[in-house]
Amino acid sequence: MAKKFYITTPIYYVNARPHIGHAYTTIACDAIARRQRMLGSDTHFLTGTDEHGQKIERSAAEAGITPQELTDRIAGEFRGLWDRMKISYDDFIRTTEPRHKRGVQEMFRRIRDNGYIYKGSYSGQYCVFDELYVDAAEPGSPCPECGRPTETVSEENYFFKLSAFEDKLLKLYTGQPDFIRPETRRNEVMTFVRSGLRDLSISRTTIKWGIPVPDDPRHVIYVWLDALSNYCTAIGFGSPEKQDQQKFDHYWPADVHMIGKEIVRFHCVYWPAFLMAAGLPLPKSIVAHGWLLFEESKMSKSRGNIVRAETVIDVLGNDALRYFLLREVVFGQDGSFSFDALVQRYNSDLANDLGNLASRTLTMITRYFRGGEVPYPSSGGARTAADDAIARTAEDTIASFASLWDDFQFSRALEAAWGLVGAVNKYIVENEPWAVAEKEDEGSRSRLATILYTAAEALRIVTALAHPAIPEATARIWEQFGLGAISDFRLTDLKWGQLQHGTKLGKVEGVFPRADKSTIERMQQMEQQRVAAPVALAAPAATPAPTAPQATPAATAPATPAATPDGRISIEDFAKVEMRVGQVKAAEKVKGADKLLRLEVDIGTEVRQVVAGIAEAYAPESLVGRKVVLVVNLQPRKLRGLESNGMIVAASVGDKGSPVLAGFLEDVPIGARLK
Ligand code: MSP
Q1: Measured between alpha carbons, how far is 91 from 47 in angstroms, rounded to an integer?
Q2: Contact at 8 Å (CB) between 288 and 184?
């Protein structure tokens, strides 16, 4: 029977759109899952979205939509992006799905029935951003994770007896050293647990947007118990159906939970404790990677320094992003993203090294051998030590690649594979097959056959090894080899000499066109347009304008009338939004609301009342006479009892998303339409 392999990404919060920080984790899991499938494992790869909690509730309120609308929209964006990136997930779980709710309630029940839940009252500090209870903190003290001020919560709660698991957890970490990887994270966790664990509040009464506690629906279950349980609920935990239960028994425990380093505590302390309390087996390992930095700090929405995966994949393709992240970032450590480094890596490793090796080797076979068939290598006089050296390097690379990859050292594994690429490129230059091809004697023909067989066989091996990291280009090279679908190939069989002579090559085409300076400029422009575009989660009108399709190796999807899964809209959809220039005639603060201003805006045909959340950024008197951009065909809504008839367009800037009103450098008449 095939070995089972179950791998998960964190489920991503839906309070922000996906960026390449999220893509990094997902790509790493995808690459691992693809290699496992090639090894013949019965692989299950889970990803999804984390949709409950106060953070989501507040983001929705700020955007003026319901939590369900917000979660539907952003979950769709995550899923749409993974589909565009051809992420090979087997399942996508949303925590608002009934299968999840049922499973979480079952988890709660089991922990309670085993005596690890009691009722008590909590009065203390809570960080809404991290959804974290902060022990021994004063009112207003900063959250130890993110530094934001904590909020005081005081309520009757259900508590989880985390303190009962101190010894068991320490035993787990020492008895199973691979449970937390890398080692540095394991040490941090052990220090944290050794310093003592306090019981954990696992319900809230002040939040509505969550899963009710079974038999006590005034409480909703703490988001982290809810979220972590996804790893079980997605594979059938808590379902009454027999086949779901079998699925759970088959795949659980997970082999790898892949996470970013900031959520180690939840996964390495709370999660195993919850599972022990519920009487369930523990995951085999939790692997924490570092952060992707951009402009020297962690890429995150709140810092406003994100880069979208779409920008890179539209311009350079999926493989370029995957290769860069896996090769450039030392797994486990923080790594920096920059467009310059991306293009440099792409050109040197993909366009030059692998791309050239593939195109020249395959082209020469087609040109020099009848029918474009792989030639037969000589075992006799035409063979040299250099040929054998390549064969040996290839065998060594297969072994070292496997051990490095299995140890999550993707960067070093790829470095090893590219070591082989470099050796073969050098071998080709030194053995000059083009010069040998000019001679017609039998010895030269045999020598030519040996050189090109050696180069082709090494290329085939690199292609198979690199497939999980760069699936698209390697699939194309495999087809050019005439070997069919690479996904059908079993890596367990990979060894030197499998390439059959007489294999008829397919059509040879370049796989990585070179990028130039304008590639970087194009990506930077796309990101600038996104930052400049007024972004709000509230209305489709505020989504960034679609960027013009580029003539690139990765074709951009044509515009379709409805929103595409990646969230783009057609020009017809955009035209539905009527934005006009208006002039503020009057402005005043809304009583009892720190953030709101009531404005009267003249849009040429009428004067509209608009309530806008800009009071912290603009004094009312500074706005009178100012020209603004107003979305005029939004349905009216009531804020603090005042009807708001339209939405003022503003950029959301900095950590706090402070509004900056859109305006014009030239004079524009009142009522002019924006299109
Ligand atoms: N919802 C929780 C996870 C619950 S899992 C049961 C959460 N969500 S999140 O949207 O904030 O995603 C965090 C994860 O996204 C990180 O742990 C990491 O995997 C990935 N990353 C988000 N930004 C990142 C970087 N800048 N760099 C690297 N990974 C990043 O926490």
Answers
A1: 6
A2: no
Residue whose CB lies within 8 A of the most ligand 1 atoms, among 19, 22, 287, for a mutation test: 22
The closest of 593, 4, 652, 634 to 301, measured between CA atoms, is: 652
How deeply is 90 buried, as exposed, middle or buried, from its count of CB atoms within 10 A (0-12, 13-18, 19+)? middle
The reply to whether ligand 1 has any atom less than 6 angstroms from the CB of 21 is yes
Average pLDDT, the chain: 90
pLDDT at 542: 32
pLDDT tier at 547 (50, 70, 90 boundaries)? very low
Distances from the Cα of 516 to the Cα of 242, 526, 556, 652, angstroms: 57, 16, 19, 32
Cβ(414)–Cβ(327) below 8 Å: yes
What's the distance, CA 194 to chain centroid?
Answer: 33
Q: Could you tell me the CA-to-CA distances from 520 to 244, 350, 512, 525, 565 in Å, in that order?
A: 48, 16, 16, 9, 26
At a CB cut-off of 8 Å and minimum separation 6, what does 227 contact? 11, 50, 52, 95
Lookup: tokens for 385: 């030590």
Rounded CA separation 36/38 (Å) = 5
- For residues 308 and 637, give the distance between their C-alpha atoms in angstroms, rounded to a whole number: 32
Q: Give just the sign of the alpha carbon dihedral 184, 189, 191, 192.
A: positive
CB-ligand 1 contact for 447 (6 Å cutoff): no
In the chain, % of residues over pLDDT 70: 94
Calculate Rg over the CA atoms of the chain. 29
- Report the distance separating Cα 19 and Cα 567, nearest Å: 13
Three-state DSSP class for residue 297: strand
> Is the minimum distance from the CB of 29 to ligand 1 under 6 angstroms?
no
Give the CA-trace dihedral at 499, 505, 507, 508, to 10 degrees. 50
